[in-house]
């Protein structure tokens, strides 16, 4: 029976894939009159994104989540394609009988666990839905308002099944296509599927909350909701209910003073101090209390860097902030992945030199990390040199934090903010050599010139 289910699902995926390829070919033919190479590249990439997004919406929750994860990989996909995938929405109809799932998972009747547990969810997405409740407990926790997250039935089984089918297709493609083999299609797909499956075990998310709470216990006005372990399990997680306004729903003029800077420093701490990053950052995942405290939610997808990879990540950002062409080339050879013998390092160095010369002529106030990282990723894609996936998610986290910061404070010099935060990190890690200190001093002079009023 299971084999039959695989066959039916695999056949459906195959049909949607072929229909999407046919649709893409027809629409691509309509772009033939476009002569400008860059304009054509951008329009083709956007078309691929639209067709891919449509297919993923047709194939359902696992593929919607896959598309969302793909949208965090600018090292693999063009910006125009990623922009299309970011439109994927995982808001799905609520599933019934969530209370029965809670009782089975926690091994007790609802009335023994909660004074209230609302039947209708307050949010429903592709992996889980959330219900408001009130705890029933001995001691001071009795009567606490809580949010109860419940996994969709069979969500893990479906994710693992779809993942195995996709990996089968990917390995077949690698056998018949050198391009797919060179791109390590199956390896990257395994990484995507792992990220989706990780979100289908709420015990992992509960541990992530505790890790974030520990990392930020000395940081004022930052909260991660408390999880109640005796009301949580693999398919159910109960945490405190936090009220507040979504950040993107508050007019900038009404935000607490210094809030934008505070939020940026929260994200920079995740990136550079902890190496433990919320990998699904967007304004809907945090709320602001009247006193300016920010509460961060939905930590099922995180990225933890090893100490070695964290140093590699910090070194990449040092190259962006104050490195020269030689620094970049050394970093790319040391820390990024490529197939030996396929990279023309001389041509790559020319492109890095062009990129470096371009951005160094611009004011730091006009620079954005998102633009810089997109440029260096584009150079890497061209030459077959890519960062390891774990580092990529950290870079995307930094770019996402920058984007949120720009929404809250459009005039911020985000390049300077990152540079200022990074120098003490380099000092603490004994990564400030004489040449790096000289480069940092030159960068400080450049920033001061950029900030000075015109004569």
Account of the protein in words:
Belongs to the protein kinase superfamily. ADCK protein kinase family. Keywords: Membrane, Monooxygenase, Oxidoreductase, Transmembrane, Transmembrane helix, Ubiquinone. With 455 residues, the protein is of the alpha+beta class. It has 18 helices and 13 strands. α11 runs parallel beside α17 (414-428). The N and C termini lie far apart (78 Å).
**Helical segment count:** 18
Largest sheet: 5 strands, antiparallel
Count of domains? 3
- Assign a percent range to the helix content: 55-70%
The coarse silhouette is globular
Distance linking N and C termini: 78 Å
How many individual β-strands?
A: 13
Work out the radius of gyration. 24 Å
Name the beta content range: 5-15%
Report low-confidence residues grouped into runs of 5 or more.
none
Could you report the average pLDDT, rounded to the nearest whole number?
A: 83
Structural class: alpha+beta
Which key features would you list for this structure?
single chain, 455 residues, alpha+beta, Phosphorylase Kinase, domain 1, 3 domains, 5-stranded antiparallel sheet, 4-stranded mixed sheet, 18 helices, 58% helix, 10% strand, ubiquinone, membrane, UbiB_kinase, ATP binding
Short description:
This protein is α+β, with helices and mostly antiparallel strands and 455 residues long. The chain is built from 18 helices and 13 strands. The chain folds into three domains: 2-89, no CATH class; 91-157 and 194-242, Phosphorylase Kinase, domain 1; 304-448, no CATH class.
């Amino acid at each position: 029976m299971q084999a039959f289910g695989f066959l039916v699902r695999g056949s459906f995926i195959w049909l949607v894939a072929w229909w999407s390829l046919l649709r893409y070919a027809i629409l691509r033919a309509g772009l033939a009159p476009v002569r400008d190479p860059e304009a054509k590249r951008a329009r083709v990439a956007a078309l691929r994104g639209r067709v891919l997004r449509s297919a993923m919406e047709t194939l359902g929750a696992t593929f919607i989540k896959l598309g969302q994860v793909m949208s965090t990989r600018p090292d693999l996909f063009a910006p125009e394609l990623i922009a299309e995938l970011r439109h994927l929405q995982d808001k799905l109809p609520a599933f019934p009988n969530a209370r029965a799932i809670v009782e089975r998972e926690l091994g007790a009747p609802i009335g023994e666990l909660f004074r209230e547990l609302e039947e209708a969810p307050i949010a429903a997405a592709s992996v889980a839905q959330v219900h408001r409740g009130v705890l029933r407990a001995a001691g001071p926790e009795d009567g606490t308002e809580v949010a109860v997250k419940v996994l969709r039935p069979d969500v893990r089984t479906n994710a693992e099944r779809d993942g195995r089918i996709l990996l089968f297709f990917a390995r077949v493609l690698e056998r018949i296509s050198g391009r797919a083999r060179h791109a390590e299609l199956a390896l990257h797909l395994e990484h995507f599927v792992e990220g989706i499956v990780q979100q289908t075990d709420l015990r992992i998310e509960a541990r992530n909350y505790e890790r974030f709470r520990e990392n930020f216990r000395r940081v004022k006005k930052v909260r991660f909701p408390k999880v109640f372990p005796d009301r949580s399990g693999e398919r159910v997680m109960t945490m405190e209910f936090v009220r507040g306004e979504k950040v993107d729903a508050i007019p900038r003029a009404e935000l607490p003073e210094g809030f934008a800077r505070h939020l940026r420093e929260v994200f920079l701490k995740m990136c550079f101090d902890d190496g433990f990053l919320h990998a699904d950052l967007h304004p809907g995942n945090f709320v602001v209390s009247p006193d300016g405290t920010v509460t961060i939610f939905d930590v099922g997808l995180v990225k933890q860097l090893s100490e070695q990879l964290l140093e590699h990540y910090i070194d990449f950002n040092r190259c962006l902030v104050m490195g020269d062409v030689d620094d970049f080339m050394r970093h790319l050879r040391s820390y990024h992945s490529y197939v030996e013998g396929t990279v023309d390092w001389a041509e790559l160095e020319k492109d890095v030199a062009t990129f470096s010369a371009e951005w160094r002529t611009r004011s730091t106030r006009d620079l954005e990390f998102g633009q810089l990282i997109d440029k260096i990723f584009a150079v890497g894609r061209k030459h077959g040199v890519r960062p390891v996936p774990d580092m990529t998610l950290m870079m995307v986290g930094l770019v996402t934090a920058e984007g949120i910061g720009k929404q809250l404070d459009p005039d911020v010099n985000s390049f300077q903010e990152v540079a200022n935060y990074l120098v003490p990190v380099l000092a603490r890690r004994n990564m400030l050599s004489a040449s790096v200190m000289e480069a940092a001093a030159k960068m400080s002079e450049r920033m001061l010139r950029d900030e000075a009023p015109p004569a």
